[in-house]
Write a structure and sequence with these properties.
The structure is a single chain. The chain is α/β, with parallel strands linked by helices and 377 residues long. It is built from eleven helices and 14 strands. α2 crosses α5. It is globular.
Length: 377
């Protein structure tokens, strides 16, 4: 199978598209998506669940999805969320070893969800954009191994890219072998290390197969009255145009910028402390924001929400040691709890939104199958 993006030409102007042509058993209207990648989503009457940073931890990712009530607990990776809309807020990459497997799982769930009137959306984070740039500083040895295994799997597989990618979650564990031995990534094993870097570069360089898969996802997504992004949206982002930003990042990931005489990285979305994927203005503690009084941040947030026409914003990016929480009159929800074993190894939590009211769902790891629900209306 070729290692370059199949979609090498610009897409035509996006048109609204429906995920279902008629109301299903529940009588809900179809989900309507505007933008390519998706930017504005109308999901009438749907339950929305948002999951924060996963950082390559498949075990914790599955636990979070089970906590959200969308993934079966029988090990068969079945969608049980019905017409629920699931949104994952990025940073699937780095600090863990099962990045591609998580991407594959989410795509498999998306296919199943559509058949039931639901949907799965992903928002790219800073660690996705870093890897497309070739910044591999936070890549675990096992993640390099997964890239090697995945390329070999693609070479042997006769299915289309879409089928092969979705099936990876079912076969990935079987591809793990001696590569996980303690001395496998010893400093002197330079040949193996170099092979991993090359494999990752092939998959994630602009135009590579995984980069093109990431290009399907936005950096900003608005679902009904809620806006979702990894770091944080600011007024000048909205003024620039969130659909414009999404398209520019997508084009860059698909390698289309390389066809231009002066290719440029979409800086406003992916670079700088105030870019969409790096911004921490809304999610840091007050002690870290001495230059920005609380009332000023609240004002910036309110201006942003008014500009984009949203009730509240949901962000990841900055681990919250107290768990999912809201601030500034609950106009901002911070849902990165550092659940990956490569970060804080905290218990998974997800945000549930029903009828514009939000609450936190927390897994009870000590009692199998039991949830702790915290209402935050």
């Amino acid at each position: 199978m070729a290692s370059l993006c199949f979609n090498s030409l610009p897409l035509p102007p996006s048109q609204p598209r429906k995920l279902a042509e008629a109301p299903l058993n529940g009588g809900l209207k179809p989900i309507v998506i505007n933008g390519d990648p998706p930017t504005f989503v109308s999901a009438p009457g749907r339950r929305i669940v948002a999951v924060g940073d996963l950082h390559g931890d498949l075990v914790q990712a599955r636990c979070a999805l089970e906590t959200a009530g969308v993934l079966s607990s029988n090990g068969q990776d079945l969608w049980i969320g019905g017409e629920t809309v699931l949104i994952q807020l990025g940073d699937i990459f780095d600090r863990g070893e099962d990045e591609i497997a998580i991407l594959s799982l989410l795509q498999s769930l998306n296919i199943q969800a559509k058949e039931n009137g639901g949907a799965v959306f992903q928002v790219n984070g800073n660690h996705e954009t870093m890897n497309v740039e070739g910044d591999f500083r936070y890549v675990e040895p096992g993640a390099f191994d997964e890239c090697i295994d995945f390329l070999e799997y693609l070479d042997e597989d006769e299915d289309s890219w879409d089928e092969a990618f979705v099936n990876w979650i079912a076969v990935s564990e079987g591809w793990k072998g001696d590569s996980m031995s303690p001395n496998h990534w010893a400093p002197w094993n330079l040949v193996k290390r170099q092979k991993g870097v090359i494999a990752r570069s092939i998959l994630l360089r602009p135009g590579g197969l995984l980069a093109c898969e990431l290009a399907r996802h936005p950096v900003v997504l608005k679902v009904d009255d809620w806006v979702f992004c990894h770091g944080g949206l600011l007024p000048h982002h909205v003024e620039y145009g969130i659909e414009r930003m999404n398209k520019e990042v997508s084009d860059w990931m698909r390698g289309l910028n390389e066809l231009k005489s002066s290719p440029q990285l979409p800086f406003i979305a992916t670079r700088g402390y105030d870019s969409v994927v790096w911004n921490r203005l809304y999610s840091r503690d007050a002690a870290d924001l001495a230059d920005y009084p609380s009332h000023q941040i609240s004002s910036i947030l309110k201006e942003t929400l008014q500009a984009v026409g949203a009730k509240a914003m949901v962000v990841g990016h900055t681990p919250q040691t107290v768990g999912i929480n809201c601030k500034y009159n609950c106009n901002i929800w911070r849902i990165d709890v550092g659940m990956s074993r490569g970060v804080l190894n905290s218990r998974p939590e997800v945000l549930e939104i029903v009828d514009n009211k939000a609450r936190v769902l927390r897994s009870r790891s000590d009692i199998f199958g039991e949830l702790e629900v915290v209402d935050c209306t």
